[in-house]
Fold these 4 entries.
Entry 1:
Amino acid sequence: MMSIHNDLLTEFEGSSSEEWKQKIIKDLKGKPIESLSWPLDEEILMEPFYTLEDRKEVSIPSRPLERLDWEIAEDIIVNRDLKKANKDLLDGLVGGVNAPRLHINHDLDENDLGVLFKEVETDFISLHLVLSEQVNPSMFIESFSAYLKERKKEWKDLRGSIMGCEFQEGVRMKSIAVDSHGFYRGIEQIPEELSKTIGLGVDLIMASADGRQATGIFESIFFSVRIGKSYFPMIAKLRALRVLWQRIAKGFEEETTTPEIEVVFSDDAYGENPNTNLIRATTMSMSAVLGGADRLVVTAPDFEGKQGYGFSRRITRNIQHLLKMESFFDKVHDPLAGSYYVEKLTEVFVEKAWADFLKREEKYHF
């Protein structure tokens, strides 16, 4: 009887790239193999398959992810009706959200915050605050500090992030947001998007330093990235961002090499059919998780009639619950490691984005 500790892969003979190619040509029955190549843009042509031989010259780590786990996020709009926002927030938490993302659209005082967070136990969640341009960041921080003090809590007791304010020193919540949503242009411009994203990250670090230690600033940075419908390119984009930020951290002589990445769906993610949109939401969620998202916001597709928005929110939460609790995506250690296609695509994105970054940022020395 074979021991369970034996390497089962030794029982199979390997196949060369040429053998794979000949098998594909045979199965195509006269159709040229070149017809299977995928041009992502004018310069990037992805072949229909890759093997270990194509990994020999790769200059990036082949295992950029340590684990797959992520926070289940949901957008909560905070307008003047704070009781409704509180209800939406509580509904989300009861429904399994552990990282609510509150879009705050006007100034809030201590009393307003009391209404918004009524019956919300912030010790048990990851809280993410997105301040709009209508919000005075300094006033908000002051009001929130007073709200916490009244409840015998401090900023250090909260985990999560704040988008829309300056670097908050001594605060556990991440406050340097690299918002790359405006750089998203689909798969054709992924390298440029990545280049601009890490460039913005470097600019924010330099602007926030002001004599401070870079370590604290690196620990406070997080990325907010959009993904679209193209499954493999979106996976490779997120993996490439991690590798690129490793290079940036090395340039600053920092040990922090695993950036926190928040993933949001692109505006063109959905069409008119809500059922088709659910399928899209599932595949995009999979690409976000496999790419290494730390936090995922699944946009709720619109459902008309009696089902309404509440049903839409619940069903999109369940997509993430299915990935965690039934498909066990969070239990597997980097399942795409060894996928030569994804790793090759990641390599292409990394090298093109890095070259573009160095060209754009000649003032920095990396």
Entry 2:
Amino acid sequence: MYSIEELTDIADKGIHNISIPEEPNRLYEPIRYSLASGGKRIRPVLVLAACNMYSNSIDKALYPALAIELFHNFTLIHDDIMDKAPLRRNQPTVYAKWGQDIAILSGDALNILAYQLLAKSDKEILAQVLNTFNKIALSVCDGQQYDMDFETAQYITQEEYLNMIELKTSVLLKGAMQIGGIVAGASQSDIIKLGEFGLNLGLAFQLQDDLLDAFGNSNTFGKKIGGDIVANKKTFLTIKAFSLAKGKSLELLSSYFKAQNVDPIQKVQEVLKIYNELEVKHETESKINEYFDNALVALEKINISSEKKTVLLSLAQKMMNRDR
């Protein structure tokens, strides 16, 4: 069995060795920039780890794993355009560095490169891999549209929000796990359980991201704390707070999320005070634990020996072991 570190190194080297055309430079330089900016490589590592559960050889899983990572980076480039985001991973976004038009086109090209890599999968499993990949790719688009719709919606339910992050974020982890299983020849029953593991892990991970944005340590989290509050984003914490707040707390919360000219530091401090009064942090942690436990149950039900699940279990624990 490969370790997490070995799988991450394989994914990194695979990304580095992808042949990106040189010209036209203004199309492909942003792609090289995006892929070189790092990230945790969670999705390709999940593909490789899922395959490694059933097979000592993971070579045949590399192209699909790289395709997943390229597709993920394509979605980030286009997300940043839609959000007009200046920074990604503490570096200027492709949108900020090259402008909207180049970012759109480079993102499109990156998506095509992902499909070129996917097409290199073994012929015996190509149709199934492609079908799974297409389902998750379209789901990500569905989730992004819901996310944009929510920006102007007056009220969002907890169920609507969870559905959105499932589509936008979690299905990619689900697909990564399932593709790894497909490549390795896992049973249909195990492929379903692998997907359940990835989906629930993705939901727990995204909700933890919401939590850390409000209550995390900026030095270890890697982002400025309270960014979602300043941007009036409808996160799980915001939705939970509005559902619990009454009287003066509800009035204050509404006023801060409607105000146009308010000091961002004051806004974050006051909103967090309301979150604490309503025990929103505890509510969010409970939901995170619920999804993480669901992921572990799905992993336990996969029909292979426990020792072959240790790398995935360690990876899941590592993903969730971020400073709160």
Entry 3:
Amino acid sequence: MKKISTSLYMPHEIEIEKISENSVKINVYPFQAGFAITVAHPLRRLLYGSSAGFAVTAVKIDGVTHEFDSIRGMLEDVALFILNLKNIRFKIKDNSNKVEVNYSFKGHKEIKGSDMDNDDVEVVTPDNHLATINEDAELNFSLIIEKGIGYIPSEEFRNNAPEDFIPVDAFFTPVRKVVYSIEQMLVEDDPTFEKIIFEIETDGQIAPVQAFKESIEALNGQIAVFSKAMDIEISTTEDDFENSADMQKLLQDVSVMSLSARSFNCLDRASIKYVAELSMMSELELKGLKNLGKKSFEEITSKLEALGFPVGFKFEDDFYKALNTNIQELKIETSEA
């Protein structure tokens, strides 16, 4: 006789296998029958749709007025040059969302991605071909590289492109492949449980495990709206708060936000250890932290919004009190350890 369940079985195992520098296999299990597909499909869509990356949005080439032109001494015409350019993937080295970079090449040369590294950007596809020029050629061009999500066609940039720049289709998504399979597995004599096997590959702008983490954060953020919007009367005892999913999320170390070293070190110097401490601050208080620059402020606020608890979030009074109590207890335990 099949055992009668009174609550959902919660998956608790995750295994990560590194296939290559930009490819991983992730196994998550065990799920009750039917729940694996419920989780796997939206995560796959979010991996493609929520991961931020960098792309060229406009190019200016000396002596060129449109994308159907040609360049003296270059094997490729401008259309093929732009097509090759789309396949070269960049990362902006600081926390900027936009940068303009200039390049100049002269004499016989096959130009590859590795030739385009400089102080502003890193090329994560160094072997990708851009163009071939002969000994009499001189190629000077500028790129606008921006950070974004998803795909934006060149027509969207045409009205805002600087003078003499040609807009370029921007495929920001750094995730190149996400496939999943679902296998049945045995749990306590029940063979109907399921395992999800994800295979994730990125272009090198972001590590595949990091992309997976960010997709989970995005999924949590999207679902969180329902608990805030629904008019549901919830018990507010301290025990309930301590066991709630929101409480657990807020009491996580700030390291789960995957902040840049500059932002993390600033919080560490201010003795801010938990996500809740940031969420309970006002924008003015956060901006007032010593050595916290504009880019770090934008990064922190963006991460908090993704978690569903933006800066200055208005908590219920009882929840706020319980949250404060838990933070103080955690800090005392940490200092005594």
Entry 4:
Amino acid sequence: MDLLRFTTAGSVDDGKSTLIGRLLYDSKAIFEDQLEAVERVSVQRGNGQVDLALVTDGLRAEREQGITIDVAYRYFATPRRKFIIADTPGHVQYTRNMVTGASTANLAIILIDARKGVVEQTRRHAFIASLLRIQHLVLCVNKMDLVDYSEERFNEIVEDFKQFASRLDVADLKFIPISALKGDNVVEKSANMPWYPDAPLLHTLETVYIGSDANHVDPRFPVQWVVRPQTDEYHDFRGFAGRVAGGVFKPGDEIIALPSGFTSRIRDIHTFDGSVKEAFSPMSVTITLEDEIDISRGDMLAKPNNMPQVTQDLEVMLVWFSAQQKLRQRGRYIIRHTTREAKCLVKEIRYKLDINTLHKNEADLEIGMNDIARVQLRTTAPLFVDAYKKNRNTGSIILVDEFTNNTIAAGMVF
């Protein structure tokens, strides 16, 4: 079975945690002791029914306030597919947590309260999902039971969102009317909405095709570790361990090591279970070469006829995380890209993005927490990058404060 990573997004109280709880509950993926704990807490809080949002809201502050604060990861499987869920917060102040949870997702479920319709945070999360190159969006119009399962209201919201989404870069967009609280169109098709002809949410998650999402064309292998076992059996073994970030590598392939530019051929590809005939994203492997080349952590293996851009000047779209400091023109930070680290300087803040209109604001260049801006960076060492739209692994960076070591921004390379 293949694996689908998906995230929930949307404004606060749109029902993200309840939806995940309903998915797990109706697909029989909650253990008895977990369900008993949720039932016990629901009774203590005076709820008239089991609060399925408690399945993912595990922090004390989350349960006390009835909101999601941190990203909660849950795992479950059906006979068709395995799933990793990232339940992300809806509050504006926790947008950075949403970016973290969505950064590895194949699909995003964006929830909308049927009573409120499309709001600012809906647009913000939809744009961030598009910015993160999530190719599959499922818009779930939730709480349909509170609008009498109105087809007219569902169609109004769909048209409103389509107008906004027409400016986004999304390949696959679906709309599903649901009630996470009642279970309508979540796992089973709803009898309350006979006017909706398509499949429920779980069937969509089980059948969405993600095979073409990964880049299997451009071979990229960031070296994470040099393996030198100090044993008699492997006395002369020298391998390079890491995770394939793109393309396909096979024994006998000619490779080039960056930044040195030396070339060699792959002798063998090792995994925990033994040698393999090919390696592709996202496999973690150890590669051995026919020649002795000085390669260390932060270097990259590629193909001589298909190399990434080697540059010290980057154009990036930044999502600013820090509440303690703002992005500084000429500011100095640590930049981390794949397994490579360097220092960088902010050469220019080009514009700040207006989330509601998607217009470029070149007058207001004060970038604070949760703001999104286009920035030009200059690094102290060359990085081996691709455009983010081409490869999410080699097109993403993070900025780290050099004094506190806190992650203060995430960026996508143009």
